[in-house]
Backbone:
Protein backbone atom coordinates (compact mmCIF):
# COMPACT_ATOMS: atom_id res chain seq x y z
CA UNK A 1 0.00 0.00 0.00
CA UNK A 2 1.25 3.47 -0.86
CA UNK A 3 1.25 6.07 1.84
CA UNK A 4 3.06 8.14 4.42
CA UNK A 5 4.35 6.66 7.65
CA UNK A 6 5.40 8.56 10.72
CA UNK A 7 7.02 7.00 13.70
CA UNK A 8 6.64 6.76 16.54
CA UNK A 9 3.00 7.62 17.18
CA UNK A 10 3.80 8.91 20.67
CA UNK A 11 7.15 10.29 21.80
CA UNK A 12 8.24 11.48 25.21
CA UNK A 13 11.41 13.46 25.88
CA UNK A 14 13.02 15.42 28.64
CA UNK A 15 13.54 19.13 28.20
CA UNK A 16 16.92 19.97 26.68
CA UNK A 17 17.13 16.86 24.50
CA UNK A 18 17.00 16.91 20.74
CA UNK A 19 14.55 14.49 19.17
CA UNK A 20 14.07 13.36 15.56
CA UNK A 21 10.68 12.53 14.08
CA UNK A 22 10.56 10.17 11.14
CA UNK A 23 8.55 10.67 7.95
CA UNK A 24 8.70 8.20 5.07
CA UNK A 25 6.60 8.07 1.91
CA UNK A 26 6.44 5.49 -0.86
CA UNK A 27 4.24 7.57 -3.15
CA UNK A 28 7.19 8.80 -5.21
CA UNK A 29 6.18 12.35 -4.33
CA UNK A 30 8.59 15.21 -4.89
CA UNK A 31 7.29 17.63 -2.26
CA UNK A 32 7.18 17.00 1.47
CA UNK A 33 6.01 19.15 4.38
CA UNK A 34 6.13 19.30 8.16
CA UNK A 35 3.31 20.91 10.13
CA UNK A 36 2.77 21.48 13.80
CA UNK A 37 -0.69 21.42 15.40
CA UNK A 38 -1.45 22.70 18.90
CA UNK A 39 -4.71 21.94 20.72
CA UNK A 40 -7.64 23.80 19.20
CA UNK A 41 -5.44 25.25 16.48
CA UNK A 42 -4.94 24.84 12.79
CA UNK A 43 -1.76 23.54 11.22
CA UNK A 44 1.33 25.71 10.96
CA UNK A 45 4.06 25.03 8.44
CA UNK A 46 7.52 24.31 9.87
CA UNK A 47 9.59 23.29 6.83
CA UNK A 48 8.97 22.10 3.31
CA UNK A 49 10.98 20.49 0.56
CA UNK A 50 10.33 20.57 -3.16
CA UNK A 51 13.06 18.15 -4.22
CA UNK A 52 15.87 16.09 -2.77
CA UNK A 53 18.64 18.09 -1.11
CA UNK A 54 16.50 21.23 -1.01
CA UNK A 55 14.26 22.57 1.74
CA UNK A 56 12.78 25.89 2.80
CA UNK A 57 11.73 27.39 6.11
CA UNK A 58 8.04 27.68 6.74
CA UNK A 59 6.29 30.04 9.11
CA UNK A 60 7.65 28.62 12.39
CA UNK A 61 11.06 27.10 11.60
CA UNK A 62 12.92 28.38 14.66
CA UNK A 63 14.12 25.51 16.87
CA UNK A 64 13.64 22.90 14.14
CA UNK A 65 15.88 21.38 11.49
CA UNK A 66 15.29 19.01 8.58
CA UNK A 67 17.16 17.08 5.93
CA UNK A 68 16.12 15.64 2.57
CA UNK A 69 18.84 13.25 1.51
CA UNK A 70 16.42 10.79 -0.06
CA UNK A 71 13.22 11.41 -1.97
CA UNK A 72 11.18 9.18 0.31
CA UNK A 73 12.43 10.54 3.65
CA UNK A 74 12.07 13.92 5.35
CA UNK A 75 13.05 13.68 9.04
CA UNK A 76 12.38 16.57 11.42
CA UNK A 77 14.64 17.29 14.39
CA UNK A 78 13.16 19.22 17.28
CA UNK A 79 16.10 20.88 18.99
CA UNK A 80 16.47 22.10 22.53
CA UNK A 81 16.16 25.62 21.14
CA UNK A 82 12.47 25.08 20.44
CA UNK A 83 10.84 26.78 23.43
CA UNK A 84 7.53 24.93 23.39
CA UNK A 85 7.96 21.64 21.53
CA UNK A 86 5.00 19.69 22.93
CA UNK A 87 2.57 19.36 20.01
CA UNK A 88 1.13 17.06 17.36
CA UNK A 89 3.43 16.90 14.33
CA UNK A 90 2.09 16.03 10.89
CA UNK A 91 4.07 15.18 7.79
CA UNK A 92 2.54 15.57 4.35
CA UNK A 93 3.53 15.08 0.74
CA UNK A 94 2.42 16.10 -2.73
CA UNK A 95 3.19 14.61 -6.12
CA UNK A 96 4.79 17.91 -7.17
CA UNK A 97 4.93 21.29 -5.43
CA UNK A 98 2.17 22.49 -7.79
CA UNK A 99 -0.18 19.55 -7.23
CA UNK A 100 -3.23 20.44 -5.17
CA UNK A 101 -3.86 17.16 -3.41
CA UNK A 102 -1.83 16.94 -0.20
CA UNK A 103 -1.57 13.60 1.62
CA UNK A 104 -0.99 13.49 5.37
CA UNK A 105 0.72 10.95 7.57
CA UNK A 106 -0.85 9.70 10.82
CA UNK A 107 1.13 12.15 12.97
CA UNK A 108 3.47 11.97 15.95
CA UNK A 109 2.42 13.35 19.31
CA UNK A 110 5.50 14.73 21.07
CA UNK A 111 5.46 15.46 24.78
CA UNK A 112 8.44 17.22 26.37
CA UNK A 113 8.61 17.50 30.14
CA UNK B 1 0.72 37.24 4.81
CA UNK B 2 -2.03 34.72 4.22
CA UNK B 3 -4.74 34.65 6.85
CA UNK B 4 -7.66 32.24 7.02
CA UNK B 5 -10.56 32.65 9.40
CA UNK B 6 -13.30 30.15 10.04
CA UNK B 7 -16.57 30.53 11.85
CA UNK B 8 -18.03 29.24 13.89
CA UNK B 9 -15.14 27.69 15.81
CA UNK B 10 -17.47 25.26 17.52
CA UNK B 11 -20.80 23.98 16.27
CA UNK B 12 -23.20 21.69 18.06
CA UNK B 13 -26.17 20.61 16.00
CA UNK B 14 -28.86 18.02 16.08
CA UNK B 15 -29.08 15.17 13.62
CA UNK B 16 -31.17 16.02 10.60
CA UNK B 17 -30.45 19.75 10.68
CA UNK B 18 -28.63 21.85 8.09
CA UNK B 19 -25.81 24.25 8.76
CA UNK B 20 -23.01 26.16 7.04
CA UNK B 21 -19.39 26.69 8.03
CA UNK B 22 -17.77 29.84 6.67
CA UNK B 23 -14.16 30.35 5.65
CA UNK B 24 -12.82 33.83 4.89
CA UNK B 25 -9.36 34.20 3.45
CA UNK B 26 -7.09 37.12 2.87
CA UNK B 27 -5.87 37.07 -0.72
CA UNK B 28 -7.32 36.65 -4.18
CA UNK B 29 -6.20 33.02 -4.27
CA UNK B 30 -8.33 30.67 -6.33
CA UNK B 31 -7.12 27.61 -4.44
CA UNK B 32 -9.15 26.58 -1.43
CA UNK B 33 -9.11 23.22 0.32
CA UNK B 34 -11.31 21.56 2.92
CA UNK B 35 -10.07 18.83 5.27
CA UNK B 36 -11.62 16.69 7.96
CA UNK B 37 -9.84 15.62 11.15
CA UNK B 38 -11.15 13.08 13.63
CA UNK B 39 -9.89 13.37 17.23
CA UNK B 40 -6.24 12.34 17.55
CA UNK B 41 -6.08 11.47 13.86
CA UNK B 42 -4.54 12.89 10.73
CA UNK B 43 -6.22 15.07 8.11
CA UNK B 44 -8.36 13.71 5.30
CA UNK B 45 -8.83 15.75 2.13
CA UNK B 46 -12.49 16.51 1.40
CA UNK B 47 -12.60 19.08 -1.37
CA UNK B 48 -10.28 20.98 -3.68
CA UNK B 49 -11.82 24.19 -5.09
CA UNK B 50 -9.86 25.81 -7.90
CA UNK B 51 -11.98 28.51 -9.48
CA UNK B 52 -14.53 31.18 -8.72
CA UNK B 53 -17.97 29.65 -8.46
CA UNK B 54 -16.64 26.13 -7.95
CA UNK B 55 -19.06 23.84 -6.17
CA UNK B 56 -18.34 20.29 -5.10
CA UNK B 57 -20.52 17.82 -3.26
CA UNK B 58 -19.84 14.55 -1.51
CA UNK B 59 -22.68 12.94 0.38
CA UNK B 60 -24.11 15.40 2.90
CA UNK B 61 -21.30 17.93 2.42
CA UNK B 62 -21.16 20.62 -0.22
CA UNK B 63 -18.34 23.15 -0.61
CA UNK B 64 -18.33 26.33 -2.67
CA UNK B 65 -15.89 29.09 -3.49
CA UNK B 66 -16.44 32.79 -4.15
CA UNK B 67 -13.06 34.31 -4.94
CA UNK B 68 -14.43 37.84 -5.27
CA UNK B 69 -15.79 37.73 -1.72
CA UNK B 70 -12.79 35.65 -0.60
CA UNK B 71 -15.24 33.24 0.95
CA UNK B 72 -15.69 29.51 0.93
CA UNK B 73 -18.56 27.67 2.56
CA UNK B 74 -19.03 24.09 3.69
CA UNK B 75 -22.72 23.25 3.85
CA UNK B 76 -23.95 20.29 5.85
CA UNK B 77 -27.29 18.80 4.88
CA UNK B 78 -29.31 16.62 7.25
CA UNK B 79 -26.39 16.06 9.62
CA UNK B 80 -25.64 12.62 11.00
CA UNK B 81 -23.49 11.67 13.98
CA UNK B 82 -20.71 10.31 11.72
CA UNK B 83 -20.03 13.85 10.52
CA UNK B 84 -18.78 14.84 13.98
CA UNK B 85 -15.17 15.98 13.46
CA UNK B 86 -13.09 19.12 13.08
CA UNK B 87 -13.21 20.70 9.65
CA UNK B 88 -10.40 22.87 8.33
CA UNK B 89 -10.28 25.12 5.34
CA UNK B 90 -6.93 26.05 3.87
CA UNK B 91 -5.86 28.63 1.33
CA UNK B 92 -3.29 27.78 -1.29
CA UNK B 93 -0.58 30.23 -2.16
CA UNK B 94 -0.57 30.83 -5.89
CA UNK B 95 3.17 31.44 -5.77
CA UNK B 96 5.82 29.00 -6.86
CA UNK B 97 6.07 26.98 -3.67
CA UNK B 98 2.33 26.38 -3.28
CA UNK B 99 2.32 26.93 0.46
CA UNK B 100 -0.94 26.24 2.23
CA UNK B 101 -2.29 28.28 5.14
CA UNK B 102 -4.83 26.61 7.41
CA UNK B 103 -7.72 28.10 9.32
CA UNK B 104 -8.15 27.32 13.02
CA UNK B 105 -10.82 24.73 12.33
CA UNK B 106 -14.50 24.26 13.16
CA UNK B 107 -15.28 21.52 15.64
CA UNK B 108 -18.60 19.99 14.68
CA UNK B 109 -20.58 17.92 17.13
CA UNK B 110 -23.72 16.25 15.83
CA UNK B 111 -26.06 15.20 18.60
CA UNK B 112 -28.39 12.22 18.03
Residues:
Amino acid sequence: DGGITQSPKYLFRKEGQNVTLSCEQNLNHDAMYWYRQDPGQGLRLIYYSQIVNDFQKGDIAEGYSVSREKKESFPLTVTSAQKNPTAFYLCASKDTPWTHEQYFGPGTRLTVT
Amino acid sequence: ELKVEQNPLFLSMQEGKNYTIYCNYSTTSDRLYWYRQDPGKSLESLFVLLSNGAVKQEGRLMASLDTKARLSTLHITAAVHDLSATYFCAEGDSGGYQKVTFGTGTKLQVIP
In short: The radius of gyration of chain A is 13 Å. Residues 52 and 71 of chain A are 5 Å apart (CA to CA). Chain A is about 0% helix and 45% strand.
